[in-house]
Amino acid sequence: MEKISALGFLLVISFLTRHLACQGKTLQGNCLTVEREALLDFKNGLKGSNTRLSSWIGGNCCQWEGIGCENNTKVVISINLRNPYPFEEMSEKWSLMNLSGEIRASLLELKSLRYLDLSGNTFEGILIPNFFGSLKNLHYLNLSNGGFKGVVPPTLGNLSNLQFLDLSSNEFEESLFVKDLEWMTSLVSLKILKMDEVNLAMVGSQWMKALNKLPFLTELHLQYCRLSGPISSLSFINFTSLSILNIHGNYLQSKFPIWLQNISSIIFIDLSYNNLYGQISPGLGELPNLQHLDLSGNRNLTGSCSQLLSGSWQMIEFLDLTNNNFQGTIPASIGNFCNLKHLDVSDNALTGSLPEFLEEIKNCSSEGVLPELRELHLSWNKLTGRLPGWLSQLKKLTILDLYDNKFQYPIPTSFGTFRYMEYMSLAHNELNGSLPVSFGQLFELVELDVSWNRLTGIISEQHFLKLTKLKVLWMEGNSVLVLNVSSTWIPPFQLDYLNMASCNVGPSFPTWLKFQKNLRRLYMSNANISSSIPNWVWNISSLLDLSNNKLSGSIPPTIGESNLDLFFLSLSGNQITGEIPKSIGYIWGLETIDLSSNSLTGSIPSSISNCSYLYILNLGQNNLSGAIPKSFGTSFIFQNLSRLVILDLSYNRLSGDIPTWIGTAFSSLRALKLRSNAFSGGLLFGLSNLTSLHILDLAENNLSGSIPSTLGDLIAMSQKVNISTSVVVYLTDNENISITQAIDQDKLIVKAKNQDLEYAKSLSLVVSIDLSSNNFTGEFPNQITKLQGLTFLNLSRNHINGSIPQNISMLHELQSLDLSCNNLYGTIPPSMSSLTFLCYLDLSNNNLSGKIPFTGQMTTFNDSMFGGNSLLCGRPLVAQCEDDDLDQGQGQSNVEDENDDGFIDQWFYLSIGFGFSVGILGPFFLLVIKKPWCEAYFRLVGKIVDKVL
């Protein structure tokens, strides 16, 4: 038998060899010669192949790296040259495996090729070869992240056996694009289609109908493809086996595709971050196999959260409805989702309280409440009431985010029993009582945020007992909360971020901070600390906010040598003395310097001009003297302070002329405050270059000359401020600390309405000019009326003459106008009565004349606002105008006429009322008394109505 078997085997080999030889396909070392030569030619077109394809030698190509052959015939059926290392890492391993160059048509000799994977390489922007469409036996084609660009060839539509197609790009590549999808309808065997980040902007609105023609499609991945317009309504669903649909991050403006709820096979749906809108049907909650649903970031999807979450989902694991407009409450029925791992309904319109108990879990393999839940996000809603006890029974919970709701009552003590909790945010609620000591047992906790509540009591060392992994601690805004730990306490944690602003940390400076070696952000403002600043503080963090305490001492001369990573420094509102060290200019990465409201002396160091990344410089309310350093505008080593957005030197003893280079050196300025110094000279700096300026405050100096016409060239003041553009710049270090946030530390003040108005987060909405209490002369600057976004204007206590412009009503956003104590003459323009936002006006102590236009908004101001103008008359002043008597006589005559007319009108309306009563009530009483008449009447009315309808 063995001899017969061996003979049979030899006969088969002989037959195959003869058959292949007759077709010109000779075997050479278990590999067809023609295919071996084709592969070698393909290799020669590639760059990097000497390293990656070093095994491509010898006669047996079936043993070469990445080559697969059919067992019997030894024909090549697969090429897998995928780079297994991610491009983003750009590591040495990635480089060794990377291929580029050209792809030669010799691959067409591989007649049986079914599998081709060239993904993860960098083919340097070459086109996808047209001849790929002739590889008729391909079942699998993966060119993802391969560096291809240009149009996807429609010839790929010839691959009728193709089951898998991946053309996805990544953010680092120039995208492929498709002109239309009609060719794709020929891929009748296709099961998996991945085209993430391929540009489909030109395919039109019928793309879904085209893809619906693929009957075996199970996965559709179209993330970031620039799709726009509606999603087609499908009257007939052809891809009934669809299990994955991912079209995240496009520009689709469409109602939610209701036909999705008819695909029972669907497992994964991601329609997030489009512009979908409309009502979500509760029927979506009945999909039996759905495991992943992400509708986040659409903003306008609506529906009842309680109805949707009351569905019969048995398999759901991931549910994200963030940033939409879902309403209602969280139902108790979510307790039935025994496989749920991730629930996020943040940033919606949820109301009411959380259920006190959850429904009993049915048919779950694990016991307990939501036994698989890892993440629960309910932030940015309007949820109220207590935090229910079942929250602490979520055994596997790692993230609990309840930020910005209206939860009340104390935090449950049981919250300290989470075994796996890593992130907990209870911030911006109305929680009261003390922080449970049991929190000290959360040994996996990395981040804790309880800021901006109404917490009271004492925080002791026991609260942090086992928090060895804690990196972020936010407790800001709990003004009655007291930190009481020993001066010798060594914390078990090493923090990256600490915010205890507006808590009671003092009176001594917390010595335990010196053991924090990894601290990057320290917010300790308004913390009731009244001590000197320890020397070790200056190099503890790259963001240092110790503002609004009672800290004393001086800034060390070596600050610029001890912490070169410092980018944010705020010591405002303390009792710091001494001079500003010159070495502060060595910290060239500084973005915010706020030393305002202290007792600093000396001059402004010229070395600050080295801080070329500086956005905010606030040295206001100190005792600084001297001039503004010339180096601020003339440094050639660095780009000086061209990024400066806020410059506040107010309330000091600075002198000299305002430098002429300010307009060119600080062209990005949003606020320039030099108030209450001893500056002299004229306004000679280039105002027209300050195109972003919103606040100009030069009041209470010794400035003179006329107000230049270029004041009207302040572009940012000439238009109404848009709230959406209020944040103008973001600071570095990926911390998203905006200018408005930084100003919140800065407490920028605008002088208006005879009081200091404090603006922080709304600074961008303030447009103000204050040149008061100087020695300006000349006529009223008519060009100011071009600044139609102006909200505050104060030119008082100068020597300005001329008349108030008749078109001053063009300043329709004006809220405060003070022109008092000048030499203005002429009449008050009648158009001022149309300034509907004007709530403060002072025109006193001028030479104005004529009648006050006491109409509209002008009627809201009393006589003191017009006093000191001897030639003014009329209301609200006591002095009457010459034509007042005539007007009064006419007024009396009109009153008499009105009285007569009133008498007639009273009888007129009385008679109408009496006639109306008789006309209505008469027939009514008649019909009540005469029942047959009543029935006949309503039969007639019924016939008339029937004819009309």
Describe how the helices and strands are arranged.
Layout (H helix, E strand, L loop, with lengths): L1 H21 L10 H12 L1 E2 L1 H4 L14 E3 L6 E5 L11 H6 L2 E2 L13 E3 L22 E3 L7 E2 L12 E3 L9 E2 L14 E3 L12 H5 L7 E3 L6 E2 L14 E3 L4 E2 L15 E3 L6 E3 L12 E3 L5 E5 H4 L9 E3 L4 E4 L13 E3 L4 E5 L21 E3 L4 E4 L13 E3 L4 E5 L12 E3 L4 E4 L13 E3 L4 E2 L2 E2 L12 E3 L7 E2 L13 E3 L21 E3 L19 E3 L6 E3 L4 H4 L5 E3 L4 E3 L14 E3 L21 E3 L6 E2 L4 H4 L11 E3 L4 E5 L4 H4 L5 E3 L4 E4 L13 E3 L4 E5 L32 H8 L1 E5 L2 E5 L8 E3 L4 E3 L14 E3 L6 E2 L13 E3 L4 E4 L13 E3 L4 E5 L19 E3 L10 H46 L1 H18 L1
Parallel strand pairs: 3-5, 5-6, 6-8, 7-9, 8-10, 10-11, 11-13, 12-14, 13-15, 15-17, 16-18, 17-19, 18-20, 19-21, 20-22, 21-23, 22-24, 23-25, 24-26, 25-27, 26-28, 27-29, 28-30, 29-32, 31-33, 32-34, 34-35, 35-36, 36-38, 37-39, 38-40, 40-41, 41-43, 42-44, 43-45, 44-46, 45-47, 46-48, 47-51, 48-52, ...
Antiparallel strand pairs: 1-4, 2-3, 49-50
What keyword list fits this structure?
single chain; 949 residues; eight-stranded parallel beta sheet; 30-stranded mixed beta sheet
Explain the overall architecture.
By secondary structure, this protein is an alpha/beta fold. Helices cover 14% and strands 20% of the residues. The protein is built from twelve helices and 59 strands. The chain has a 30-stranded mixed sheet, covered by helices on one side. The chain has an eight-stranded parallel sheet with strand order 16-18-20-22-24-26-28-30. A hairpin with a 6-residue loop joins strand 2 (67-69) and strand 3. Helix 11 packs across helix 12. The longest helix has 46 residues, at 884-929.
